[in-house]
Design goal:
By secondary structure, the chain is α+β, with helices and mostly antiparallel strands. It is 30% helix and 30% strand. The longest helix has 20 residues, at 32-51. The radius of gyration is 28 Å and the shape is globular. Adenosine-5'-triphosphate binds at residues 206, 238, 240, 249-250, 253, 255, 323-326, 365-367, 369-370.
């Protein structure tokens, strides 16, 4: 992860927000290459989800909406995470990410006794951390006997009797952690010149409500027929208690969400399965390897009350397997809520039965930043390669799909002081630039120029050499992953790009 964060900074993908002022926790900026990569992810999603389908239309709704939207949706009352304070260090933790375990030792008398508690923050080795802490505690207290394997629980599962006994991760001492309490993650602001409670509004914590609130507008103007979807890409804001893992969990992020409206009598489970399959295929189409993807079915007992089923597509990040894309069957909850709170019917007239129905919805919701982090993590590699003279050297390579790579082709004249080479290279560069993100580079040895492109994920380099200008006009095409080179004509180059960049 450190290598990826370093590359992201070094090559201008991602910077800390307001870095010269020390940064602001949970906020990030995208640099020149990052912004291209992010835009490509968005554009691919939009093309596949909206433009290439007949049943889905797009909207772009405002970030600040009427505050009643968030009352109706349940966010004002319930968009909370459980928060635990450490009264001594003033640190705050998300209760479901703070783990603890009783330290249980069986003495010579065969009786198992709890001799204390240990705690650890969630990571891919939480259990190991707790076990090590338990062994430490036993040693420190010089307790004889057999230590039992720890049974980790998170702080939402702690009993009132246990809480004072659990050590704070900040101080290592028990007695300072509070009971978990609900913390609302919505960012508040005021609209207009008044600063009182009548002017309170929220930065949206999800884009989805925009689609529900505009449902009637789209039905009345868009000539859509059930089943159909409304999609949106845009910023969302959550005052996360513990933003972490680089851009994985931030306080300002971008979502790509789609609400797929179906008839109340339709087979929602089949539709849910279809979207689950679609989303996995789409992730593969932008280059995420199947081996890094898995599914997590939310247990019935933990489902939001309106959800019939939620399955998350998980991605194996370097810091653990984590949610990438949530696919939820949300019933007709949202439309019913808005109908109730606004007094405006949220119905669709079903021609077949001549009845008004409130459609149900399947919602695939994903974060652009989480996809971007996933493609960086899956694509990053450091390899030993041989140069022309057979010397082994390190190359850093980002294996990004041509669909999303920030630069598609680099155009390189073999020598920068040969006018004919440079002229031909610039001519090709100019032509390619009309349709593709292209980079022109004439500085340094050709091998070094290839390495610079490998590091930013450019799939192809084209070198203009003497054969180009003196013989048949072909170029050397060098492929990033295999490092193979072959001769190619200009027409073949454009055909390759048209096939791979879509
Ligand atoms: P988590 O459990 O990780 O907090 P969530 O289940 O609350 O996520 P949803 O409300 O389902 O997330 O949001 C849909 C998608 O938006 C997530 O799958 C994720 O890709 C993205 N997302 C949610 N919160 C964040 C965040 N703080 N930073 C970046 N992306 C986020």
């Amino acid at each position: 992860m450190d290598a990826i964060v370093a590359l992201a900074k070094r090559r201008g993908f991602i910077f800390q927000s307001s870095e010269i002022y020390g940064g602001l926790n949970g906020f990030f900026d995208y640099g020149p290459l990052g912004v291209e990569l992010k835009k490509n992810i968005r554009d691919c999603w939009w093309a596949d989800m909206v433009r290439r389908r007949d049943d889905i239309v797009g909207v772009e709704t405002s970030i600040i909406m009427h505050p009643k939207v968030w009352e109706a949706s349940g966010h004002v009352a319930g968009f909370t995470d459980p928060l635990v304070d450490c009264k001594v260090s003033k640190q705050r933790y998300r209760a479901d990410q703070l783990f603890f375990a009783a330290v249980v030792v069986t003495g010579a008398d065969g009786v198992a006794k709890t001799v204390g508690y240990v705690s650890a923050l969630e990571s891919e080795k939480t259990t190991a951390d707790l076990q090590a802490a338990a062994e430490n505690l036993k040693r420190k207290k010089a307790i004889q006997g057999q230590l039992a394997p720890v049974q980790p629980k998170d702080m939402t599962e702690a009993t009132p009797e246990e809480i004072p006994l659990i050590p704070s991760p900040a101080t290592g001492e028990p007695g300072s952690l509070t009971e978990p309490r609900a913390f609302n993650m919505m960012f508040e602001t005021h609209v207009g010149p008044m600063r009182d409670s009548s002017a309170v509004a929220y930065l949206r914590p999800e884009t989805a409500q925009g689609m529900f609130v505009d449902f009637k507008n789209v039905v009345d103007t868009g000539r859509v027929k059930l089943p159909f979807g409304i999609a949106q890409i845009g910023k969302s804001f959550r005052n996360e208690i513990t933003p972490r893992n680089f851009i994985f969990r931030s306080r300002e992020f971008e979502q790509m969400e789609m609400e797929y409206f179906i008839h109340p009598d339709a087979d929602w489970l089949k539709c849910h399965e279809e979207w689950l399959a679609w989303c996995q295929e789409w992730l593969k189409s932008i280059g995420l390897p199947e081996s890094h993807l898995s599914l997590h079915e939310h247990p019935k007992a933990k489902l939001a009350f309106y959800s019939r089923r939620t399955v998350d597509i998980m991605f194996r990040y370097p810091f653990g397997v984590q949610e990438l894309w949530g696919i939820a069957a949300r019933s007709d909850y949202d439309l019913q809520q808005h109908q109730k709170h606004s007094g405006v019917p949220q119905v669709y007239f079903d021609e077949a039965t001549k009845q008004k129905v409130v459609p149900h919805v399947i919602e695939p919701a994903v974060g652009v930043d989480r996809i971007l982090l996933a493609v960086l993590c899956a694509g990053y590699a450091e390899e030993d390669v041989k140069d022309d003279k057979g010397n082994v050297e390190k190359r850093t390579v980002l294996r990004l799909s041509p669909r999303i790579a920030p630069v598609k082709v680099a155009v390189l004249p073999l020598l920068k002081n040969k006018e004919a080479l440079v002229g031909r290279a610039k001519e090709l560069y100019g032509k390619l630039k009309r349709n593709y993100a292209v980079f022109y580079d004439e500085a340094g040895a050709i091998g070094r120029r290839y390495r610079r492109q490998d590091e930013i994920g450019t799939p192809w380099c084209v070198t203009i050499d003497f054969d180009t200008i003196e013989k048949d006009g072909t170029f050397t095409l060098r492929e990033r992953d295999s490092m193979q080179q072959k001769r190619i004509t200009e027409a073949e180059l454009f055909a390759l790009l048209a096939e791979k960049v879509y």
